[in-house]
Specification:
homodimer, alpha/beta, Rossmann fold, seven-stranded mixed beta sheet
């Protein structure tokens, strides 16, 4: 749990505070002092009377009541100290900087010590951050033992990091651009509070007036994906934006993460699917996280049409490429207002977009251009202003106009100030007004595109199609762990309302003939029993008469492990694929795609976690590389998208009713403009009791 | 042409030099003085006697002989000045900074003035850089009127830019990381010397002992692709590395580039194809160009196995993801030497790769690790060292060891020093030793992967298969502009040795029957005349007897514009595609892929410019997303790759013999494990005389 004392303590003690500011206990005290902590600040150190000008207690036992303890003593002394503070000093928040706990894989005592501490703290309903962390930064106090300290501002970013050093390096990347922070939590070993718990706290206490709307995460391990999903969605629905690095997605990266923070391997595909459902922008590195966060700190991008305003052609061209190659647009501007604007610029300027007002362009002209774009160019949703210097003139006046316009414009303005050396002073002045710079226009373009292409969160409890839950439960309760029989599959699909081909299993030749005749020729015949039927010659298509049924029956029954023959209606259509895969902790992933080479060669698969709404199902289909095929291509009929959406949501309803299902493979389904019909299916069930 | 006087002038005059260093003529003079130009420096200005402490001539006529003139006076005065200097002052090099020439689209006189100047300069075999440029930087002189001035060093980057402001902003991005430059050319309007000519000069005068091996280009317009290709390949074959931004590739970007530098639209696909053939690393922005250039300034990456050495887990994990998701590898290390190394590190360290020597790791340990990796870990090709600080200790000693090891190690070492604020002093000290920093590990990973995945240049004059050139020429010379007839196509393919299906055009019914019988049933019948045959019901497959031939003939001849019926052998196999497309100035692009949905939906096409070697053809096939299909997938036979390579190179030989061919479409060819046979073909010829 997170207590008020962790966020806004009235008193703090540094246990193990020191005069040596090159030790954690010295440095954290110095940072607290430098940050002008407004409450009471205490220090304990068995050997000192005065530490950095503050009266020092020889033992924690001598302390008065204390809200928050920041602990920087050796691991083995910590349990007793925590117990004392928790029991006798009313301490409700602990930040343990020291290492030497569960992160030491070959030191079993570390885990034992850590558990003792957590028990003490839990017993008094207090908070614990760490151990093995850099600490906590809030506008109230600078409780970290590291540098850099960013500019703290209630409207800056809230940042939760699963790695302390990485948190420092992320701030190193953000500070030069002007990025500010509100609260920074380094969770260390996450003994009590992990990234998920802190995000949950931020959601449950969210105050739209006072709290930051930008949340950043660095994660190597998603231990509680459902909590992450729930609170990320809730925060975003309250107007927040979330960007996250989830490192360790590659096979080698997963090994590295496991060695670093003990992360458990999670499929990167599952992480992408979770983040997409949550509406989290996934970032691949520190610099990208910083750019995305910086975009979030500006007005929201609500349309795809960008005006680029610059005195330099090259960066405008590169940015135009970046945006328009990734789904955004730099539309040609040509209207009466733009013609009027052109007359107010120097000869040779262009307003066609990019708006180029030449190397000699003035601050006043920039102001005029921005006003025109904001008020008169309805086709434009946002602006990027690229303005540097060749060193011949100061750009202070230009940046002052830019700052002023950013205050008042309705549309977002993203500043690219590339002359970070030559115009260093002017850029710093601009940043000191609370502004943020994007030094590289292409990186901005890539990041803007990424933000724009991230969907809003999905509905977490969508209405699913009605399925026959009683029948589904009865089938599941009467089956065993493993792949279920064709008849049970039929019954499950029927109960879920998923259309399937007319079919029947025959156990002898005359039965086969009778069933084929009742289904109607032509039919398909498939062996029942062996896996990988088609590899073993176990599938025959287009069987047109009784005689062929009889001879085919014999052939199929001669295959090893054959237990019967499935007789199916022969259908045509485009091969589609639907699937379910259960991911430990994450839940049931619903997958869709086209069949055949699209799934086998191109790996063109979309996914979402169940429950899947119609909107999500529709997005899944539209995300397919082969989506065009649904619309009908040369000579091929279109595929009924609504029926495919329905099949996806019904599959989701099926696994919601029967979470014991860990795998479904409907491959192929045949899609036409009329219908989507499952032709072959496998269902795997895991019963834990 | 480029004269020695442009590169290494003994004397320079600034025409229009000024005491006002916020004017180009003042600033360029100041830069020349600040750069300690070793030769004679002159100034002309009609109103001054002394400019920035240098004796000033009232008129160029008063000057002695001058090697290089840097001109910063109004455009209309320049032709006379240039003529005077060229004719009477033996001036062999001109840099014209002033604008007001052909870049002014609505000012026709500008182009006329520019032509006059070029004529004067050409008449004395002198060089011209500009007009409308920022100038030239070399270790010999700082002839630009802009800032920043990078550290100039003969082993720094050679940089040629089609945009002056962009050149400045690229240097702004590179200097903070420690990137140095040798020569910087801003070509402006490229009135005489463009990017291609300067690259050609660098190639023709290349001195492996003295010249920089790293060439950077910023281009919006590839006017002479063949020159670019030839000299890029030649330079790379001499040991150089080339990275280039070609901006304006998107449709909107192309419009923007045309407005900026008058660039002509070139398909981005053609540019990628050209760069791939040349071995140029294509970059998408300034920051990426800087990272790639910085990689080039290190020892060459010759294998894909990277060791990551760090005291911080997070960046190591992110870098591991970046590398291993893009074709490089961070292999697990476990050998006797690594076990020995582990004993020399603090408990809790890991040598499994990433090599993590903990937050408490020392400079000495870093040295030990690097030595082990360099000398004892044969499986490793290169190292990335990530080392920052939490602010508790100085990292000078660590960076000193790093610098020392980089001098002596056989394997490349790429330093990531993320604490650019907290360890600012130490990072600066490291850079002052000539080192380069990569502040973001993921950006380094992406860039390393890009470099590693760029092939060596192609052979420019490969041996092509022998084709019947006489026959090809005779067919081409006897045909007209436009799509050629089926019979001519047959003859051309036969002359080129490209296997085609047995086929024959029938003009009447009995002829059709006769030809079908001679080819052998079953046959395919296709209408001759209309385009888009299959859309119009103009293709019938699997015709098995005389009667069907007759009825099908009637159906086909009733189609509008039908002029005959093509009878073809009925073949089976995987549908493949081969094509030729002539790109203005670039030449004949040879394309290959799989047919059907792969080309229509997935756009899975590889290309190279003719002449295409076997190696290139093989790489084209391997680059296909659907390459797996060549190897045979479940239930499908493989495709004969060698035969497909041969077909590609024969197609290349065909267009080399007949450059009048502007388009070939072999779609489909049918591929089996035995053979590749063209089934349908279109060939379009453009005769210019």
């Amino acid at each position: 749990m997170i207590t008020e004392q962790l966020i806004n303590p009235r008193s703090i003690v540094v246990v193990g505070g020191s005069n040596d500011i090159f030790k954690p206990g010295g440095k954290v005290l110095k940072n607290l002092i430098d940050g002008n902590f407004k409450g009471e600040l205490y220090v304990t150190n068995p050997k000192e009377d005065l530490v950095q000008g503050i009266k020092c207690f020889r033992s924690p036992a001598e302390l008065p009541y204390i809200d928050l303890a920041i602990i920087a003593i050796a691991a083995r002394f910590i349990p007793a100290t925590v117990e004392l503070l928790a029991q006798f000093k009313n301490t409700k928040a602990f930040i343990i900087l020291s290492a030497g706990f569960s992160e030491m894989k070959d030191f079993e005592e570390g885990k034992i010590l850590e558990n003792e501490i957590v028990d003490s703290i839990n017993s008094v309903n207090a908070s614990l951050v760490g151990p093995n962390c850099i600490g906590v930064l809030t506008p109230n106090y600078q409780g970290v033992f590291t540098l850099p300290i960013p500019k703290l501002d209630p409207q800056g970013c809230d940042f939760i990091s699963g790695s302390g050093a990485t948190a420092c390096f992320i701030m190193e990347a953000g500070i030069p651009n002007g990025l500010t922070f509100s609260r920074v939590f380094s969770v260390g070993n996450s003994a009590q509070l992990g990234v998920e718990e802190i995000l949950k706290y931020m959601d449950e206490t969210f105050d739209p007036e006072k709290d930051s709307k930008v949340k950043l995460l660095y994660i190597e391990n998603i231990d509680k994906p459902q909590i992450l999903l729930k609170h990320a969605v809730s925060l975003i629905n309250k107007g927040c934006k979330i960007a996250a690095i989830k490192a360790g997605g590659s096979e080698a990266g997963s090994r590295a993460a496991s060695s670093h923070t003990g992360a458990i391997a999670t499929s990167d595909f599952a992480v992408n699917t979770l983040f997409r459902k949550a509406g989290i922008v996934r970032c691949n590195g520190r610099e990208e996280l910083i750019y995305i966060a910086s975009i979030f700190m500006h007005k929201e991008l609500i349309g795809k049409n960008i005006a680029i305003i610059s005195h330099a052609g090259g960066p405008s061209v590169m940015l135009t490429d970046s945006l328009s190659n990734q789904g955004l647009s730099v539309p040609h501007i040509d209207n009466p207002a733009s013609k009027e604007l052109l007359t107010q610029l120097f000869p040779g300027s262009s307003v066609a977009n990019p708006i180029d007002f030449l190397a000699t362009g003035t601050a006043e002209q920039l102001g005029t251009i921005i006003d025109y774009v904001d008020n008169k160019f309805d086709e434009i949703d946002a602006m990027v202003v690229i303005f540097g210097t060749s060193g011949l003139f100061t750009v202070s006046d230009v940046y002052a106009v830019l700052d002023e316009k950013m205050k008042h414009c309705k549309k977002p303005i993203f500043p690219v100030l590339p002359s970070i050396l030559t115009a260093k002073k002017e850029v710093q002045e601009f940043l000191s007004k609370g502004r943020i710079n994007f030094p590289d226009e292409v990186f901005l373009g890539n990041s803007l595109s990424k933000v724009f292409n991230t969907n809003a969160p999905a509905e977490l409890n969508p209405r699913l199609p009605k399925v026959d839950t009683a029948k589904i439960r009865s089938i599941i309760e009467n089956t065993k762990t493993g792949y279920i029989s064709p008849v049970e599959i039929q019954n499950l699909l029927d109960a879920a309302g998923i259309q399937r081909v007319a079919e029947s299993v025959a156990e002898n030749k005359s039965d086969a003939v009778e069933k084929a005749e009742s289904i109607g020729f032509p039919v398909v015949m498939k062996v029942v029993g062996p896996l990988h039927k088609s590899d073993k010659g176990g599938v025959f298509l287009n069987i047109k008469n009784k005689k062929s049924v009889e001879s085919t029956f014999d052939k199929l029954m001669s295959i090893e492990n054959a237990s019967g023959v499935l007789i199916q209606q022969m259908l045509s259509g485009t091969e589609l694929f639907l699937g379910v895969k259960y991911e430990e902790k994450f839940g049931h992933m619903i997958l869709c795609g086209l069949g055949g080479i699209f799934i086998e060669i191109i790996k063109d698969v979309s996914a979402s976690f169940s429950p899947v709404s119609e909107k999500e199902a529709s997005d899944m289909i539209k995300r397919l590389k082969a989506y065009k095929i649904f619309k009908g291509t040369r000579g091929q009929q279109p595929i009924n998208e609504n029926k495919f959406i329905e099949a996806i949501t019904r599959l989701s309803a099926l696994v919601e009713a029967a979470p014991e299902i860990i795998e479904i493979d409907l491959n192929p389904l045949l899609g036409t403009s009329e219908n989507i019909v499952a032709v072959d299916a496998r269902i795997n069930v895991l019963k834990t009791n």
